[in-house]
Amino acid sequence: MTSIQRTELSSSAVSEASSVQGESLWSDAWKRLQKNKMAVAGGLFLVLLVIAALVGPWLLPYRFDEQNLNSTYAAPTLSHWMGTDGLGRDLLARLLMGARISLGIGFVATLVSILIGLVYGAISGYLGGWADEVMMRVVDIMYGLPYMFLVIILMVILPKLLGSHSPGQAVSPYQSFLIVFIVLGAFQWLTMARIVRGQVLSLKEKEFVEAAEACGAKKRRILFVHIVPNLLGPVIVYSTLTVPQVILGEAFLSFIGLGIQAPLASWGTLAAEAMQNMNPLHSNWWLVVFPGLFLAITLFSLNFVGDGLRDALDPQMRGKI
Prior knowledge:
mainly alpha, MetI-like fold
């Protein structure tokens, strides 16, 4: 048997040992997560909400943009479970469409930020030295910039790049969705990069990494086969806490008129429309209450799931079921 074959066998043995340890960790974490009733309830609500957002608009008798001027500002009834808005559009249909937009931006922007932050932080932590210093100083500079101020500036600049340069013409609704996605995903990876870097600095001193290096494994293989899989716990926990931040950011931008454009609707635009129609004579409470409830319960559920995953994946709680 040649030395190259022995090196490949040794490296595969290290990979198998690491995978077996990972399987026991995940099975133990799953058992502890099931004991957290709030996390389970939050996860169940999120699953039901995603299913309703995907299937609901096709099953409801009303389209989210279908207008009926004979039924404007109708209170909740059996035909309109959550009432109608100022154009007679069914609020439930618009809320489910808003769930598509808000959850879509939240999950996709978080996924992109995870990929960028994971790769950036892992490379920075594993290389170390001057490369780590330069990469982390870039992150520090971006951290020092005012986040929401930059977001608002980008929201004003990007429509001119994607749409018409004439001041009276706005971008299309789907371009507004793309703009919000780009802007919110552009700054959410910074904390992920710092978390991953700190974990990599600790993991690269472990015995299984030293064994892989002694077996002659390449740096790229060590980083993405041996180290990165052991980072999934903190990454998953932080991602569940990033989604609410993105959803709130989108809701705020839509609330001030810089987010999703009509006829598309997010929970932020629905809340903004409700506040514009509030007056002392006609409260139209359902226009405010139902979007607020959807947003609040979703954010609570995401935080419950995040807390449950944090406790389930805590190494100090391992084996305590």
